[in-house]
Design a protein that fits this description.
single chain; alpha/beta; eight-stranded mixed sheet; six-stranded parallel sheet; 31% helix
Amino acid sequence: MNPIRVAILGQGRSGRDIHGYSLSKMPDQYKIVAVVDELEERRKRAEQEYKCQTYADYHQLMDRDDVDLVINALPSFQHVPVSLEFLERGFHVLSEKPLARKVTDVDLIIDAAKKSGKVMAVYQQSRFSPAFIKLREIIASGVLGRIVQVSIFYSGFARRWDWQTLKSMNGGNLLNTGPHPVDQALQLFGTDLMPEVICKMDRANSYGDAEDYVKIMLMGNNRPVIDVEISSCSAYPQFTYQVQATQGGLTGNLTHLDWKYFVPEDSADHQVISAPLQKEDGTPAYCSEKLIWHEASWDLQPDFKQDLFHTMALSYYDMLHKTITLGEPLKVKLEEVRQQIAVIETCFQQNPQFAI
């Protein structure tokens, strides 16, 4: 089977360092045949690195019949209009995140993809994070009991002054980093129900006008509370994930997880009493017990630690190759991305100072 022929729009940090780098490692599945970038030095570098043709204007690609997949790694505000153009011209399209700022734009994308009959995918590679996959496996096993709350922290301390700090270019932490933890949060909450959303934003360290602190709470009947934090003013980030549950809990980051739980059958069964608790000598006692804890841990494989982003990229692109060549369903569905954008849009509605 011939490799999928790819054109990459943009040779910035995503277009080159993620997509270009990853696809060049998958020659049996993908071949980069064209690159678009308005900067001449980036075009020259792409010609040397990929041995491909380059263009300053993406419209120059439209009439080529040897391009199967267009990767839209242009700045965020160009994801919707440019992806629509290529769908309408009959190309498969992979858009970088965020796909859009508003649900109405996602609906335009979904409609265009249906009309064209082409694959429209969104690069949400964090769904393939080994730590997140393991976390879901542990939750699904039931050993932690009923999940009460999951906290997801994509935080650190940073001062930025690039285009990602500008509202006019769809910058800010919610649209730049947010699609990853929000996508994971909705997978844990359940995509069959739109959650109640509470969000607070702030601008702490950014030199632009977009937000760099975001706190989101997702809630619903008979669902765990999902707490998402995306902060650029967290000087002591301690973990990425923390799970609170009725029989134990979990904590950890992208390379290491710890969890512990007790087995109800091995523990005492208590009855509620209203009388004061006391020790054997008659002095007051605190309500406490010694549970038998079972503890376990998980570590990312050493080879993966060296290039975690590449590991997730290979998994995503392997999935996309099967979708385009074999017709297998996308694992990150457009309808799921639509729900993600619905949450993001609600967040901006609750914080109008950061809306546009």
